[in-house]
Write a structure and sequence with these properties.
This protein is α+β, with helices and mostly antiparallel strands. The chain is built from 12 helices and 5 strands. 41% of the residues are buried.
C-alpha cells in the first residue's frame, strides 16, 4: 500500500506564536504531521508520539497514565464521544472531528481515526481542512452551545449529529465520516503540494457517485409515496364520470392492481435498513474508511522509525501494532469492496427490473390519456389526474436510470481500485 506522500516536507519548527498565548488561540499543528496515541479499554493513555506531546503541551509524565479526556475541549459536543464509544466498544472503527485543548488553554482540531485493538484503542489523527470540516465545525459550535444551554443529554446530542449526516445526503453518521476521511486525505495532499494519484481519484469518483445515488434514493422514495394517492384519485374521478364498471373505473382498478406489485418492489428497494441502496452504501463507506485508515497508519508507522526514546514507550511494540492494523484494514477493505461491487451490480439489476415493471403502468397510463381525450370537456378532473401520473412516472424512471448509471460507476470504480491497489 502506497503512502499518502512520498517524501514529506520538512517540519517547520513551531514559533512562540504557534505555541499559543494561553488565551485560547490555535496551537500549531502542521499538515505534514500526524498525531498518535494508544489507550487501554478505559481510555487511559498508554503511549503517544512526539507530535501529540508537543502540541498538547503536556509532559510525558503528565500524559502517560492520564485519561485521554485530559485534552478534551468543551467545544466538542458530548454526542461525538457517545457515538465514538458506542462504535469502538462494539469492535468497530470510526472517525470523528475533534477539537482538543492544550495545557496552556489553546486548541487544535484533528480528524481522528480510532481503531479497537486487543486491550484498548489506537488513534491516528490528521489536520483537517476540507469543506466537510468547515460544515462540521459550524455544527459543533451551535451544538455544544445547545448542550450547555438546554442541558442536552449525550444521546440527544448524538441524535442531532446523526440527523445532520442524513440531511447532508448520507445514510448514516458512519458513512459521512468515511466520506470526510476521503476528503481530508485529498485536502492533505493538496496542502502538502502532492499531486493526487490514481487511487485518490478513483476514491473521489466513488464518493461522489455514492452520494448522488443516496440522494436519488431519497427522491425516489418521495415520488413513490406521492404516486400512491393516484389510484384513489382515479377512482373518485370515475365515480363522478360514469356508472360502476365503466372505462375509467376499469383503468383505475387495473392501475391499482398493477401498482401494488411495483409498490412492494419499490418499498423493498428504497425503504428499510437492509435495502440494496443502504447495504451498498454501508459497504462502500466501510471500505473507504478502512482504505483511508490504512494509508494514514502506514505513514504513521514509517514516521515512528525516527522516534526518540521515551521512558515507558516501546516503539517497536507500537510499530508492530500499527503494522498488524494496516494488514487487517487492507484485508477487511478488500472484503468490503468485493461485497460493495456485488451490491452495486444488484442495485443495477433491481433498478432495471423496476423500470421494466413501470412500462406496464405506462400502458395503463396511456389508456387513461386516451379515455381522457375521448371525454374531452366532460373529463371532470381526469386530465389533471393523468398529468400527475405523467409527472411521477417520468420522475421515477429518470431516477431509476440515474441510479443505474451511478451503480455502474461505483462498480467500475471498485473494480479499478481492486486492480490498482491490491495488485501486489
Amino acid at each position: 500500500m502506497n503512502a499518502i506522500t512520498t517524501v514529506p516536507p520538512a517540519v517547520r519548527a513551531p514559533t512562540q506564536q504557534d505555541a499559543g498565548t494561553g488565551l485560547g488561540g490555535e496551537a500549531y499543528f502542521g499538515f505534514e504531521e500526524l498525531f498518535y496515541s494508544r489507550t487501554d479499554t478505559r481510555g487511559v493513555i498508554q503511549a503517544g508520539n512526539d507530535i501529540f506531546q508537543r502540541v498538547s503541551g503536556f509532559t510525558w509524565a503528565e500524559l502517560l497514565g492520564a485519561p485521554h479526556r485530559t485534552v478534551r475541549h468543551p467545544d466538542t459536543p458530548r454526542g461525538v464521544f457517545r457515538i465514538l464509544w458506542d462504535s469502538i466498544q462494539k469492535g468497530n472503527s470510526l472517525g470523528a472531528y475533534v477539537k482538543n485543548r492544550t495545557k496552556s488553554g489553546d486548541y487544535y482540531w484533528v480528524f481522528a481515526i480510532i481503531l479497537p485493538i486487543e486491550d484498548g484503542y489506537l488513534s491516528v489523527r490528521i489536520k483537517p481542512s476540507s469543506k466537510v470540516f468547515e460544515r462540521v465545525r459550524d455544527l459543533y459550535m451551535s451544538l455544544s452551545a445547545r448542550e450547555r444551554r438546554d442541558k442536552l443529554e449525550p444521546e440527544q446530542s448524538a441524535g442531532v449529529l446523526r440527523d445532520f449526516a442524513v440531511s447532508e445526503g448520507f445514510s448514516s453518521y458512519t458513512s459521512l465520516m468515511a466520506y470526510a476521511l476521503g476528503q481530508e486525505l485529498i485536502a492533505l495532499n493538496q496542502n502538502r503540494g502532492i499531486e493526487q494519484d490514481r487511487r485518490t481519484r478513483i476514491l473521489t469518483d466513488m464518493n461522489a457517485a455514492l452520494e448522488k445515488a443516496t440522494q436519488q434514493q431519497t427522491g425516489l422514495l418521495r415520488s413513490f409515496e406521492a404516486l400512491q394517492s393516484i389510484p384513489n384519485n382515479m377512482r373518485i374521478v370515475a365515480s363522478r364520470l360514469e356508472p360502476s364498471g365503466g372505462p375509467v373505473s376499469a383503468i383505475s382498478e387495473n392501475y391499482k392492481a398493477s401498482s401494488v406489485v411495483i409498490a412492494e418492489r419499490l418499498r423493498a428497494f428504497v425503504m428499510g435498513r437492509d435495502n440494496t441502496c443502504d447495504l451498498m452504501s454501508r459497504e462502500v463507506a466501510r471500505a473507504l474508511f478502512l482504505l483511508g485508515s490504512s494509508r494514514v497508519i502506514a505513514e504513521m508507522n514509517r514516521s515512528m522509525g525516527q522516534a526518540k526514546p521515551v521512558e515507558g514507550i516501546d516503539w517497536m511494540h507500537e510499530r508492530e501494532l500499527l503494522a498488524s492494523l494496516e494488514t487487517k484494514c487492507n484485508q477487511q477493505a478488500r472484503e468490503a469492496m468485493v461485497c460493495a461491487a456485488e451490491m452495486a451490480a444488484r442495485l443495477n439489476r433491481t433498478s432495471a427490473d423496476i423500470r421494466r415493471q413501470m412500462l406496464g403502468l405506462d400502458t395503463i397510463r396511456v389508456l387513461g390519456r386516451v379515455e381522457c381525450g375521448r371525454m374531452r370537456d366532460s373529463s371532470g378532473g381526469l386530465s389533471a389526474t393523468i398529468d400527475q401520473l405523467d409527472t411521477f412516472h417520468a420522475d421515477i424512471k429518470n431516477r431509476l436510470e440515474l441510479i443505474m448509471r451511478l451503480s455502474e460507476v461505483i462498480e467500475s470504480s471498485i473494480s479499478s481500485f481492486l486492480r490498482v491497489d491490491f495488485s501486489s
